[in-house]
Amino acid sequence: MANSNLPRRIIKETQRLLSEPAPGISASPSEDNMRYFNVMILGPSQSPYEGGVFKLELFLPEEYPMAAPKVRFLTKIYHPNIDKLGRICLDILKDKWSPALQIRTVLLSIQALLSAPNPDDPLSENIAKHWKSNEAEAVETAKEWTRLYASGA
Amino acid sequence: MGTKVSDDLVSTVRSVVGSDYSDMDIIRALHMSNHDPTAAINIIFDTPSFGKPDVATPIPSASNGGKRVENGIKGCSFGDSASVGVTHRVEEEDESVNGGGEVSVSGNEWWFVGCSELAGLSTCKGRKLKSGDELVFTFPHCKGLKPETTPGKRGFGRGRPALRGASDIVRFSTKDSGEIGRIPNEWARCLLPLVRDKKIKIEGSCKSAPEALSIMDTILLSVSIYINSSMFQKHSATSFKTASNMAEESMFHPLPNLFRLLGLIPFKKAEFTPEDLSSKKRPLSSKDGSAIPTSLLQLNKVKNMNQDANGDENEQCISDGDLDNIVGVGDSSGLKEMETPHKLLCELRPYQKQALHWMTQLEKGNCTDEAATMLHPCWEAYCLADKRELVVYLNSFTGDATIHFPSTLQMARGGILADAMGLGKTVMTISLLLAHSWKAASTGFLCPNYEGDKVISSSVDGLTSPPVKATKFPGFDKKLLEQKSVLQNGGNLIVCPMTLLGQWKSEIEMHAKPGSLSVYVHYGQSRPKDAKLLSQNDVVITTYGVLTSEFSQENSADHEGIYAVRWFRIVLDEAHTIKNSKSQISLAAAALVADRRWCLTGTPIQNNLEDLYSLLRFLRIEPWGTWAWWNKLVQNPFEEGDERGLKLVQSILKPIMLRRTKSSTDREGRPILVLPPADARVIYCELSESERDFYDALFKRSKVKFDQFVEQGKVLHNYASILELLLRLRQCCDHPFLVMSRGDTAEYSDLNKLSKRFLSGKSSGLEREGKDVPSEAFVQEVVEELRKGEQGECPICLEAFEDAVLTPCAHRLCRECLLASWRNSTSGLCPVCRKTVSKQELITAPTESRFQVDVEKNWVESSKITALLEELEGLRSSGSKSILFSQWTAFLDLLQIPLSRNNFSFVRLDGTLNQQQREKVLKEFSEDGSILVLLMSLKAGGVGINLTAASNAFVMDPWWNPAVEEQAVMRIHRIGQTKEVKIRRFIVKGTVEERMEVVQARKQRMISGALTDQEVRSARIEELKMLFT
Fold this sequence. Notes:
The complex is a heterodimer.
Chain A: H1 8-19, E1 25-29, E2 36-42, E3 53-59, E4 70-73, H2 103-115, H3 125-133, H4 135-149
Antiparallel strand pairs in A: 1-2, 2-3, 3-4
Chain B: H1 7-17, H2 23-32, H3 37-46, E1 69-72, E2 87-90, E3 110-122, E4 134-138, H4 160-163, E5 171-174, E6 178-182, H5 185-196, E7 200-208, E8 218-228, H6 230-236, H7 240-246, H8 254-261, H9 274-278, H10 299-307, H11 320-327, H12 350-364, H13 368-373, E9 379-383, E10 391-395, E11 401-402, E12 414-417, H14 425-435, H15 438-441, H16 478-483, E13 488-489, E14 492-496, H17 501-511, E15 519-522, H18 531-536, E16 539-543, H19 544-552, E17 565-572, H20 584-590, E18 594-600, H21 610-619, H22 627-639, H23 643-656, E19 657-658, E20 678-685, H24 689-712, H25 719-734, H26 736-739, H27 751-760, H28 776-788, E21 804-806, E22 812-814, H29 815-821, E23 827-829, E24 836-838, E25 843-844, H30 863-876, E26 881-886, H31 889-901, E27 906-909, H32 915-927, E28 933-937, E29 950-955, H33 962-969, E30 981-988, H34 992-1007, H35 1013-1027
């Protein structure tokens, strides 16, 4: 089984994620692949995503922790740094990855990204434009989407 | 002596020549005339310069009759001082000393040595020369002149003179006629160096010459030789350090030869001369005539071959058996015994009483008074013909000259007590300290107010002697000359390795009656330097380290500490410490000032015959303290395989060395010492499967590297790396964890230093990056964490740190995790803060444990440890104590785990302990019955320590050199041991350890010369190859 020689670091991280989960975040490995995590992030309060439950998938590549985990939103989300396929524009998932980061810190960073969208470094051009030209309207759209796609289902 | 001139003859001659001539003149004339009074009278009247009638001073005479002798120098002033005229008067009834100072020879004074006739050779034709013509001598000026070393090759044959270098021809001429001729080479050889150095002046005139000179005609000259007073100062200015070098050059000494040519005959001859040594007169063969196997002569070659080996673990020692062959185990059973001194609290064994008697005799040798008046056997005394009655002493070995009386006081009074380990050298020495205390002896121990160049009273009745000057080492020891005026008279000085400091103190306290010996330990940074304090104590104990450091500081003007004391007796314990004659410690020991000198060592020769030289120099066994003589007569012959070298060593040592071994027997043939039996066995262990896997992997890796070296033919160049490979393999046999032990963290073990380094930000020039210095608060936190030994975890592997490193930004990570996170191997980002970090900047984090792995948690017993535990378990019920020896303190660390787990209480002794801690540990071990085990590093426990509380020794890993192992084990199998001794060596089968056994055996063969030269050369590579099979 692929899990048999799972690095101790991954096991340890998993145990910790399960035993002391970060507030607003849950991550659990898949039954058949311990490198694949089902993640749920609660939309941060005072953000357009408040009240939403966002599903993500997280995969730890073979090189982890020397390479960043691969993370993607499964739940549709209206956010300038997240595209329609759920891909996330976050530096620590790319060139700023450091092995000192962990699953938990990655997810916390994503949570923070929800609180503070950064339209200056967009992944989704349209949403970013919207955000810049009419932030209030864009926020409303985001709330709308949260209700539509991320309301507890 | 053969040179005695009877009083009768003197008075006969005097009756004819009258009182105008001094006794000395008459005696000299008699010498020249071969004791024929008539001829002597003729000589006196015929020689214009013979004696000066206006000075008629009685002079010292060689006759030992009850003559009144006055050795006076009257009204003569020397040098720039006009008030030095001093009379040395030695009278038979009242041997008091009148002299207040000494003859000052400081100026540039010429002293008349004597005159002689010599046959010059004409080098001219037709020039005129008549009797009485003054001659001028011209000496060649060129440098690089080598003293002619083939006497008898005098150029008398026609044409032959041309072959000689013109540089050593001394010519003479007259004012009127120019060059007339040359003097014989024999004379020229002696005169040249001396005249060149302005030590000697020559004046001469023609005595007779043929009417018409033709080439090669003989011209009879009459010459007078003067010696410059500076000659005698040269030697006082010759420092000890240079003396050892200069002696190497040649064995030709011009001055003694010149004296011989002049017909000067020593009125006191050296009892011991170079001729004695070269000729076979000296009884070289020891009486037992034991043939020394020539194979022993191989010893040196083996040694040399090993010299460049890295690491002292490869140091070649010679085995006890070989040692006995070289130095010879004297049959000492016939020695007399001396009663145990009443102040000694234990009863000496018979052989110890013998040693005491022997030592006492050697010390007595010459009683001090007598010694002070006896001429040192290597020196001869001459009276100069100068009217000032100067007595000059020449050393027949070194050619040194002095006007100070070289007495036997300079000679060795002491020797080498070389009993094998465990016979109680310490106790014998203590008994000697008690038997002859310096206080009792101090009346005879020089003048109490010994000062400068004072003359020592001679209290021996009926012995007329030349003015006796205090001990001096002409040409030997400048320091002594400078210092003697400020030296304090002290008691006994014992110099020992640091490990034995406490033992000496406690043994003295234990064995000497309370109050009989005051002991002072001169050691430590804050030791007082007050010579008075040192001299007040009966026994001062110090270490070789202290000795060296005081020796090196000793050039400073104020004389303090050990060197400000003139010791009554010095004992060097483990005296082989000074074996390297060029080392500071050896020089330091030789420079000590003492009356009686002893070397204690179980191994007077450790590696090389040369080791002995240093001991003999310290002991002042002349002439062997002079390298040239030692080298010529002992060292070289020995190295060239000439048996005489070895035989000479034996005859040198015979009188001054006492060596018994445990197997020595007494007069009745019984062993002198009965020790409980020792049961020595090797325990062979098998590696477990997992250990075997690990070992094999390591072995393969090592062998690949080694084979590379072999292929490149660079085995011997990579000796260090190969030893390192072997070291890993050997450690693996002890426990695989050892191989995983980490690098040295000593550099930053001082955490304050570490935090300073962080805050200064001076990390190898990366300052251009600006102030990338971590905040002080953070550094404090990190350092505090380290100090508390908080484990924390690596941010990368999330495990406890393994071989943690610190980045310059003060982040801690496992070394391997960090390096793995970098794209290239030399630098990368700090995973925590993303600062650029280079590999060199990393600091190995200091921690408590030196293992990469958490050994406690992951503890696994190695097969060797399992075997050890079985043994210990078997001994537990009997309560008998054990010592575990290992070469690696890391293994001692590991051993602590199973010992505690199995409830064996233990103590530990290794090199990290200071003296007090050591003493405490040893005391605990021997007194606390519940402590069963002593963990000891082989090096810390090698010498001197008495561990008879234990009766079992476990040697955990084999040492290259079996002698070291043996020495350690002998700590328990020695005097005082009452129980049967069990010695166990552990060897893991099928590993490098087993190969080492073979190599050890092979080495023994090599030492004993079973291999030929050719074999020896390739032996080292072979040996290594063998280890990698």
